[in-house]
Design a protein that fits this description.
Layout lengths: L1 E2 L3 E4 L5 H9 L14 H18 L3 E6 L5 E9 L11 E7 L8 H16 L4 E7 L3 H9 L3 E2 L5 E2 L11 E8 L5
Antiparallel strand pairs: 1-2, 2-3, 3-4, 4-5, 6-9, 7-9, 8-9
Helix pairs in contact: 1-2
Amino acid sequence: MITTPRLHLRPWREADKPVFHALVNTPAMMAHFGGPVPQAKHDAILDRQMEQQARHGHCMWAVDLRETGELAGVCGLRIGGHPGTPVPEELEIGWRIGEKFWGQGIAREAAEASIAWGWAHSARPRIAAWTVIGNIRSWGLMERLGMRRRSDLDFRHPDIDPADPLGAMIVYAIDRPAAS
């Protein structure tokens, strides 16, 4: 799908499921998602990504290191899909890079490539991202990507208990660049 100097972003395969689960199901990785979960929950996430790829031609892709082929995480674009919120049809960018790869610029490299792909392959006027306010690394990357806070799009995640602070989503977005 997408190749960068260090990365290859590609659709998911069934064989990726246990590798992905092992990579992301750590306390540090799951801190903003309510803690570690059973593998079935991650399998369902990848099933949805495979369905998005089949339906729309894109998803939150697997991110492999080109040099070794090792799975480093996930990054890509999907249709937001949260009915009853301000973002049900937004083109969402997201990422989760395994903690052993933190601080190496992998999330930024993958996100920049995903945004460029989105502009080249969709007519969407903007690309959005959301996270909890406490996820400083994610919203910090959003800002480094040129995204700006869109408090008018903030929402409560419908799948998270209303009393849980992890359900309060803040939204950032970047507008399509003007044609030159």
